[in-house]
Design a protein that fits this description.
With 144 residues, the chain is an alpha+beta fold. The protein has one domain: Glutaredoxin (3-Layer(aba) Sandwich). It is built from two helices and five strands, in the order βαβββαβ. A five-stranded mixed sheet has the order 2-1-3-4-5, with helices on one face. α1 runs parallel beside α2. 38% of the residues are buried. The N terminus is likely disordered.
């Protein structure tokens, strides 16, 4: 199953974080889609840390497993585990507990994604950059 209405609303969800033009990201995404049944699979934008991509994020409720530099076979296995009701933590590079309705990338306590603050780039790697539903409406009206 692929998620066509936004990355943040469905659970369980597999997110594939990679540059839009990444062939490897496309292969990882396709493999996860092939295995997923009721699990949403979403292609998100990059996190800004190329060395981690394609990054697979397996989320169910308020728990997300991060698997760095995933291969298509790994993505297929992760989707299968999530499909069976288990967040795949055994091969995860990081696991983060978070609010189930979080709209930004949950930040691991250690590793490359733990560095700095992600105020502006918070949604990077978590939402589909081409999906308007994933972004809250902002007004351009200003008062003087």
């Amino acid at each position: 199953m692929t998620d066509v209405t936004g990355a943040g609303s469905e659970s369980p969800t597999i997110r594939i974080s990679a540059a839009v033009s990444s062939d490897r990201g496309d292969r990882v995404y396709d493999a996860a889609c092939d295995e997923a049944g009721s699990v949403s699979v979403v292609r998100t934008g990059p996190t800004g840390v190329d060395a981690l991509e394609p990054l697979v994020l397996a989320t169910d409720g308020g728990r997300t497993a991060f698997v760095y530099s995933s291969s298509p076979s790994t993505a297929r296995e992760l989707a299968g585990e999530l499909e069976s009701g288990t967040v795949p933590t055994t091969r995860a590079d990081a696991v983060v507990e978070h609010d189930p309705d979080v709209s930004s990338l949950p930040v691991p306590e250690t590793g490359p994604l733990s560095v700095g603050r992600r105020h502006v780039l918070g949604p990077c790697g978590w939402v589909d950059p081409l999906e308007p539903v994933d972004y809250p409406l902002r007004s351009s009206d200003r008062t003087a």
